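Chapter review: from sequence to fold.
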Amino acid sequence: MAELEGEYVPTAADWVNEQVFAYETTGGKEGNTLFDTGYPVVIVTMRGAKTGFVRKIALMRVEHEGEYALVASYGGHPTNPTWYANLVTHPDEVLVQDGPEPVAMTVRQLEGDERELWWERSVAAYPDYAVYQQHTDRLIPVFLATPA
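The token string follows.
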């Protein structure tokens, strides 16, 4: 089983921690959707950019042929989510869990036509991403996670 070495420090948001715990302890049988929406999520484990601690979040599941889009939407806020810097700083220390076991991934931020393709896939998987983009002046970053 893939894992990141180091101390895991949960996020300040209890609901995120509860979802991560439910997902991980049941191999993805519980905690696998965004609240009661039915939209599937994956668990993303990464290394903190400033602290080096292991961090975990749930993100919308946008999968195509074994690769995943990690969309830094932050609900359309004017700034990127905190975890954005984690992926930029430590692109080779990322795990994606889509089911029973996490898989080691490398990530890179997408640009141009490739970003547009994955953005379309992301909006198809979770239509609110389009709404979030309308609420912010920043171009919402999209990372591609590929098995290491």
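Two observations follow directly from the output. The chain has one domain: 14-147. The longest helix spans residues 112-125.
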